[in-house]
């Protein structure tokens, strides 16, 4: 999934594969939904590419739920992940609302990327996440309920 902002900078979240093959997993409920994910942020100051260490299929559902909350302003201001270096934020500047993706490189340094929230951009963001949800469905057999902000 690659998104481009108004400055031509890009953010890519790429789901590569399930971390484990189903035939390798002894306890399906706990290990079947880990994904190998990379992010890449390209800005005029340079590019950073990082693997996200802990990402689950349910994180894709959480992102979708978060995006869906933009329309009626019910999404939380921050979306956290198990990999604590990655944070999605919903911020407002003047009368414009943005998604800010922040990746903490270490304790002092981070890189961020902003994306204006408008109907066209949200539609594109949702479509790309939906594609990944279809390609990488939950395999653990457990019910994940993230509607109404239960995350």
Question: Care to describe what's here?
Answer:
It holds the Pfam family WapI. The protein is α+β, with helices and mostly antiparallel strands. The chain has a single domain (2-141), classed as Roll (Transcriptional Co-activator pc4, Chain A), CATH 2.30.31. The protein has 3 helices and 8 strands; from the N terminus they run ββαββαββββα. The chain has helices spanning 28-31, 57-68, 119-135, and strands spanning 2-4, 10-18, 35-43, 46-52, 78-80, 86-93, 96-104, 110-116. The strands form 2 sheets. The chain has a 4-stranded antiparallel beta sheet with strand order 1-2-3-4, covered by helices on one side. The chain has a 4-stranded antiparallel beta sheet with strand order 5-6-7-8, covered by helices on one side. A hairpin with a 5-residue loop joins β5 (78-80) and β6. α2 (57-68) runs antiparallel to α3 (119-135). The longest helix is centred in the last third of the chain and has 17 residues, at 119-135. The protein is globular and about 50 Å long. The two termini are 23 Å apart. The relative contact order is 0.20.
């Amino acid at each position: 999934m690659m998104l481009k902002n108004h400055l031509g900078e890009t953010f890519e979240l790429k789901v590569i594969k399930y971390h484990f093959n189903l035939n390798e997993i002894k306890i399906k409920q706990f290990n079947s939904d880990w994904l190998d994910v990379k992010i890449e942020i390209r800005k005029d100051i340079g590019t950073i590419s990082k693997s996200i260490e802990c990402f689950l299929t349910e994180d894709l559902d959480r992102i979708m739920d978060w995006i869906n909350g933009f329309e009626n302003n019910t999404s939380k201001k921050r979306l956290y992940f198990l990999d604590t270096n990655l944070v999605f934020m919903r911020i407002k500047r003047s009368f414009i609302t943005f998604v800010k993706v922040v990746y903490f490189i270490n304790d002092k340094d981070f890189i961020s990327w902003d994306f204006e929230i408008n109907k066209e951009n949200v539609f594109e963001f949702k479509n790309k996440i939906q594609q990944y949800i279809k390609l990488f469905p939950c395999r653990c057999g457990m019910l994940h309920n993230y509607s109404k902000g239960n995350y």
